[in-house]
Amino acid sequence: MTGASSACQQSGCLTCSDYNGWLSCRPRFFMHLERIGMKQIGVCMTSCPPGFHGNRSPERSTCTKCRSECDSCFTKNFCTRCRTGFYLHLGKCQESCPDGMVHSDAQRECVPGCPAECESCVNSESCTRCRPGLYQLSGRCYHVCPDDYEPNDELMECTPQVHCEVGEWSEWSPCSKSGRTCGFKRGQETRTRQVLQYPSPFGKPCPDISEIKECLVKRRKCPGGRRKTERNGRRSRNNRKDKESQE
User: What are the recorded GO MF terms, alphabetically (predicted)?
Assistant: First the structure.
């Protein structure tokens, strides 16, 4: 059956067929042929699907397939976006870019070559090697590394700064003097902490890892101190007696 049924008109169709679908479209609609198995069915659309461009004419407006390397196009010979693996340049999709230009995988386009600070690059946004004297970080080249990064002259890269990290303080030691804890009134107590992470050359240095403070103790004699004094006294008296007898 061929005619202008209400179903046709609601879909932008002017005339249609039970077998071939839409045969003609209303003004401002495009005729697009969709393949279903071994036959093609006409469909009326306000705009052509991806991979096709519209050809308008007073008699019939149709959708025409873009070139195989194009994702979308303005005309058959003027691409506006390329398929993966091709790069757009002056309306054409190419597998490689002309001299002085590099490809952008994100845009699928040929873009201006390496930035001035790059010696080599993947594309205009990502350097793989910087010019002498510059440091590389995430595809960019720097005269001075950004905050929280420091220059690595061996790799010529900006590397993250590493700051010193220390553990908790130990308990204060017993009050002592010259290694003894008795026989004095004033002494010192000490405490320490461990370095958990040593800093990089430009990182924050380590704080003090030991502290000393003065302390007072109740003065007491060391154990055995009195007997030792008595022995020393007897030894001194015996020495004097021996000396006198020799005279």
Answer: heparin binding
